[in-house]
Design goal:
The chain has 182 residues and is α+β, with helices and mostly antiparallel strands. Helices cover 20% and strands 33% of the residues. A five-stranded mixed sheet has the order 2-3-4-5-6, with helices on one face. InterPro entries: YceD.
Amino acid sequence: MKDADPQGPVSFVANVGRLPQKGLPVVIDADERQRAALATEHELLSVERYRAELLVAPWKRNGVKVSGRVEADLTQACIVTLDPVAAHIDEPVEALFLPEQSKLGRQGFEGGGEIVLDADGPDSPETFSGDTIDVGALAEQFFGLAIDPYPRKAGASVEVADDAKPAESEFQQKLRSLLGKS
């Protein structure tokens, strides 16, 4: 019997209770088992390489800033031909975290403060409890968002018939004749 693993394939829990001022560097180089799990999790044919280089640093008073990059080489199935399509991901990672009890996180929602969201700006801080953050799961989120949802092999296209209307089935022809429409 296999144990249920609630954590993702590249989970890396960083203790943020006492971070060095210059930050805590974290490097995640996925092994073969982790890459296979990533491929399954994200419905890919394979993940040949996965590496996340992150810096977990103090931010403001009690917050945490995670920044870095996630790089990967992967193979997906073409949406037209189902042939393998190679892809490379090189995605910046940046996120802010505040403790659940942080005043800074509650200010905008309580006391009539305004929250200004800029679509192109940084995301608003997420909250965390305790003194750990799964920075591996964070990097995997950025990896997942960078995957092309519609991979297409070079030159592959969906053929469209010359006629605008698709051919009618026998059932559709009978139905049309019964309804008296031509």
